[in-house]
Amino acid sequence: MGHVSRRLYSSLAVSTAHLKHFPPREATLRTKKATFDPETWAALQPPPPSALMAFSHRIGLGAVLTTPAAVQRACTHKSFLNLHTRYYPLSPPPPNNANLAVLGNALMGLFASEHLHATYPHLPTRVLKAAVSAHVGPLTCASVAQEMGAVPLLRWHRQPATPTSPALLHSDALASIPRALTALVYQERCLASARKFVYSFFLGRRVDIRAMLKFRDPKRALMETVAKFQREPPKSRLLKETGRFSNSPIFVVGIYTGTDQLGEGFGSSLKMAEYRAAEDALHRLYLTRTPAHRLTLPSSTFGEDANIYNLTNPAPYTPGELGESEALYASSGRSGILAPRRRVLEVES
C-alpha cells in the first residue's frame, strides 16, 4: 500500500511540475495578505507539455514542432507579457509569438494573393483584396485556430481600447496562432512547406467570390469593358417571354457583342432581365478560372531549398498571362463630378 501511495504521489508531482506558485512569492513578501484568484491563477499557468505535443501531432506538425517550448511560444500572445510581469516581475518573460505572427501574416498574404491572382487573372483589385481577407483574414485565422483545438492552449490577456489602439479581443489573440505556425514551418523547413501548410488549412476552402462582385450599374460597366477590349458595342436581345399581359410575366434577355453571347438573365420586366444579363456577362469575365493543369505559382520556383539565393536548379516556371484590370466607371458618386450620360443598351425583340 505504501508503494502505491509513493508512486501516486510521484506521478502527481511530475504532472504538476509545470505549474507556478500562486500567489507569487515576491507578492507575498511585499504584502502581508495575499488573496487567491482562481481565474488569474488559471490564466498564468502554462499548458501541460502533453497537451502541447498532442496539438502539434494533431495538426500534422509533429516532425516540425518537436518540443513543447516551440508550440507554447506559438500559442502565447504578446498581451500575456503584461499579466506575467504584473505577478512575476522578477521572472524572465516567456517567449511570445509577436514576431512569428507578423512573418506568418506576410507569408499567408503572399500565398493567398498569388494563388487567387493565378486562378482568377481577371479579378478586380478590390474583389481580390476581399478574397484574400476571406481566405487568410483575422476572422478566418481565428476560426481555423478553433478547429485546430488551440483555444485551451492560448495564453493572452484582454486589453481595453486606448486612443492609439483598439481593444484586444479573444478572436484577435486566437488569430495569431495559425500565423505563428506558418512562420515556424517556414523557419524550420522551407517556403514550399509553408505554402503547403497554408493551402491545407486555408486556401483549400471554398469561398463564394461571386457574391463579392457588386455592380452599381452593370450595363454601363459592361459597355466600358467591351469598349476596352475593342469589341462591338453590346446589344440586348429578347430570347423568350411568357405572360406579358399577366400578373407574373417572365422575360429572358441575352446580351451579345456581334454574334457572341456574353450573358443571359431573366426577370419580371425587361429592365430587370437586362440588368441580370449584364451582371451575368461581367461575372463570366471576372470569374474566368485558369485550368488546374496550367496553374503555376511564382513561389513554386524556389523548390525545397530553404535558401532562395543558393538555388542551382530552380523548378521550371511558365508565368501566366496578366489579366486586364477592371474598367473604371460611374465615379460621380465619389468625386462629385457628374459623368457624361451614355446611351443605354438597345433591346431587340
Model description:
There is one protein chain. This protein is of the alpha+beta class and 349 residues long. 46% of the residues lie in helices and 7% in strands. The protein contains 14 helices and 4 strands. The protein has a 4-stranded mixed sheet with strand order 3-2-1-4, covered by helices on one side. The longest helix has 22 residues, at 98-119. The chain is elongated. The model is unreliable at 8-15, 28-32 and 330-346 (pLDDT under 50).
Keywords:
14 helices, four-stranded mixed beta sheet, alpha+beta, 349 residues, 4 strands
Helicity, in percent? 40-55%
The major pleated sheet works out as: 4 strands, mixed
SSE sequence, one letter per element: HHHHHHHHHHHHEEEHHE
Work out the number of β strands.
Answer: 4
Determine Rg (CA atoms, Å).
29 Å
Overall average residue pLDDT: 80
What structural class is derived from the secondary structure elements?
A: alpha+beta
Which descriptor suits the 3D outline? elongated
> N-to-C terminal Cα separation, in Å?
97 Å
The number of helical runs is 14
Secondary-structure topology with pairs:
Blueprint: H1 2-15, H2 25-30, H3 38-44, H4 49-58, H5 68-74, H6 80-87, H7 98-119, H8 125-136, H9 138-148, H10 170-188, H11 191-203, H12 218-228, E1 235-242, E2 250-257, E3 260-267, H13 270-286, H14 332-335, E4 347-348
Parallel strand pairs: 1-4
Antiparallel strand pairs: 1-2, 2-3
